[in-house]
Amino acid sequence: MKFVFDLDGTICFKGKPLGEKMVAALDALLENGHELIFASARPIRDLLPVLPSHMHGFSLVGGNGAFVVPQGGEISTVHFEKSIADEIVRLIEVYEAEHLTDSAWDYAYTGSHEHPIRRNIDPEQRARNVSLHELNEMVKVVILNSRNMSQIEEELQKLPVVIYRHGSEQIIDISPKGVDKWTGLQRLGLQPQQFIVFGNDANDIAMFRQAKHSICVGEHAALKQLSSEQVDSDEEQVIRKIIEIVEGLK
């Protein structure tokens, strides 16, 4: 069976790498012949540091589907068309927005050094933080703050893009139209009803709709409504559920 795991708030917490007990639970899946895929809002650059090194070659979906890496393969991206990218840049400038904008690898970050998202950006310093106009393509944009967040969101809603609001973080997460975690999984060859998924937020909804079995971690109302079952947002509870599923599939 294929298992798809979101990362932050699902199997890793507070931006920290996967804990030893969580890695052991995932290794138990591997030992029983199952396949692991990780699907995160993080770009691949920031996804790898939270995984143990022996899982770096696994199939990965990053940026809510905008980045895809097949097992042992290279990164491919879906980026904004130039006209749309130019309009996003204009809105960022007009509304004086602090942002994180990702290309395939490098990024532009203008937020506070104290912002919670900052600690997750390129912790191993593998990429360059450049100006927005130096990026050769725009794959994903996160608006962290603005002089008028409601107005910039209203303007962004007029564009052919996908927008997520992440829980209590009060950030605006923007991806190209037609991109979500399920489209990323499809690019890896997954078919509906052929995988089990764990997730915790709105950006996991598309995957939950297609899964054979789905586990909502925490209390996200819309996701919980689509899920097969729910567990508390607690590492030990998630580990127990993984082990329970492993035993049930033997």
The total count of helices amounts to 8
Rounded to an integer in angstroms, the radius of gyration calculated over CA atoms is 18 Å
Distance between the termini: 11 Å
Largest sheet: 8 strands, mixed
* Tertiary shape: globular
- Compressed to H and E, one letter per element, the order equals EHEHEEEHEEEHEEHEHEHEH
Helix residue percentage: 25-40%
CATH homologous superfamily of the largest domain - what is it?
HAD superfamily/HAD-like
Strand content: 15-25%
Number of domains: 2
Keywords: Hydrolase
InterPro entries: HAD-like_sf, HAD-SF_hydro_IIB, HAD_sf
Organism: Paenibacillus radicis
Protein name: Hydrolase
Task: Report on this structure.
Pfam families: Hydrolase_3 (PF08282). One of its GO terms (cellular component) is cytosol. This protein is an alpha/beta fold and 250 residues long. The protein has 2 domains: 2-77 and 180-248, HAD superfamily/HAD-like (Rossmann fold); 82-176, 2-Layer Sandwich (Hypothetical Protein, Haloacid Dehalogenase-like Hydrolase, Chain: A, domain 2), CATH 3.30.1240.10. The protein is built from 8 helices and 13 strands. The chain has an 8-stranded mixed sheet, sandwiched between helices. Strand 4 and strand 5 (76-77) form a beta hairpin. 41% of the residues are buried. The model has no long low-confidence stretch (mean pLDDT 95).
